[in-house]
């Protein structure tokens, strides 16, 4: 049986940490430790962690605020596991999460891996709608990784596993990067010749944002980060990464041309209906979630797309 170290960086989210730690008490595979790294929070979660000290093998540390990458690297250095499992504090794991990882590693060994995310039944309507936007085939779910992937799998920091010795050898996450540090790290893992895999059964429930404005900013940063990463690793920029930007240009173009050719609006309406029907069916006929999913999907595509375009313009046109 492998021994795992679960690293949880946290900043001002004690309630979310409580939910995550509770889900870890239910694991069917129990050979693991937990390291909670408080990243300079003004609302600490120490009292939450203390409630689980008799139920879990857990350690709590506080460090000056330096961002999640600094916290993850700190946790990795003091961990004891053969494999590190890195989770965001706004995640919840199913009971079989670690069991699925152990089984997957036995069947298909990997140096680094990750799993998909989905919405927990207890999430509110907006969280479910945003989860749909981030995982649907009709948005960018195929790019991020689900049961099928369009490119080599790049583990993401909300649900990432890696051999501890590989993490230490590669110096972990680049702490100078504000966004996209997980893709940067995954790229370095792959370029160093290590094997990465997607473990579909090692999924997490990811709460994400609860407001569209916050969600827009989050995905906008992701679009900007993709251009920054392409400057460091030109070969990593693929056509699929440009699709949200193409969507933005296409929708604006349709709206302008629709003034002269009104029938073009039907193409946009068809896509809206596709999203609505697919999301409604995904959530067992919940029309409310279907409506919110349309808004969340457009927010996701426009946020990522505009961030991508703006960063590309600064890079190519302004040489910044």
Automatic annotation (TrEMBL):
Protein biosynthesis among keywords: no
GO molecular function list: glycosyltransferase activity
InterPro entries: Glyco_trans_2-like, Glycosyltransf_2, Nucleotide-diphossugar_trans
Domain (Glycosyltransferase 2-like): residue spans on this chain: 5-169
Pfam families per record: Glycos_transf_2 (PF00535)
Catalytic class of the enzyme: transferase
Record keywords: Glycosyltransferase, Membrane, Transferase, Transmembrane, Transmembrane helix
Transmembrane segments: 242-275, 287-313
Name by which UniProt lists this protein: Glycosyltransferase
Phylogenetic placement of the source organism: Bacteria, Pseudomonadati, Bacteroidota, Bacteroidia, Bacteroidales
């Amino acid at each position: 049986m492998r021994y795992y170290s679960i690293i949880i960086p946290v900043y001002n989210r004690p309630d979310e940490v409580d939910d995550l730690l509770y889900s870890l008490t239910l694991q069917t595979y129990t050979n693991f430790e937990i390291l909670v790294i408080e990243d300079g929070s003004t609302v600490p979660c120490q009292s939450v962690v203390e409630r689980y000290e008799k139920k879990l093998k857990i350690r709590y540390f506080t460090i000056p605020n330096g961002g999640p990458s600094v916290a993850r690297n700190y946790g990795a250095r003091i961990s004891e596991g053969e494999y590190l499992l890195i989770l965001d504090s706004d995640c919840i794991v199913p009971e079989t999460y670690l069991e699925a990882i152990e089984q997957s590693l036995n069947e298909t060994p990997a140096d680094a891996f990750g799993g998909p995310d989905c919405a927990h039944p207890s999430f509110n309507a907006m969280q479910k709608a945003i989860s749909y936007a981030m995982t649907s085939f009709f948005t960018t779910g195929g790019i991020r990784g689900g049961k099928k992937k369009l490119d080599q799998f790049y583990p993401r920091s909300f649900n990432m596993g890696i051999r501890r010795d590989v993490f230490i050898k590669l110096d972990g996450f680049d702490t100078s990067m504000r966004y996209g540090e997980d893709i940067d790290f995954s790229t370095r893992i792959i370029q160093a010749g290590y094997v990465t895999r997607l473990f579909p059964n090692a999924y997490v429930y990811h709460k994400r944002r609860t407001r569209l404005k916050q969600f827009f900013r989050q995905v906008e940063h992701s679009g900007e980060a993709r251009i920054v990463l392409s400057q460091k690793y030109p070969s990593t920029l693929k056509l699929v990464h440009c699709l949200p930007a193409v969507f933005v240009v296409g929708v604006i173009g349709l709206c302008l041309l629709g003034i002269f050719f009104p029938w073009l609006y039907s193409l946009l309406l068809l896509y809206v209906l596709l999203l609505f029907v697919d999301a409604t069916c995904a959530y067992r006929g919940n029309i409310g979630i279907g409506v919110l999913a349309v808004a969340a999907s457009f927010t996701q595509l426009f946020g990522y797309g505009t961030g991508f375009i703006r960063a590309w313009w600064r890079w190519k046109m302004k040489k910044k």
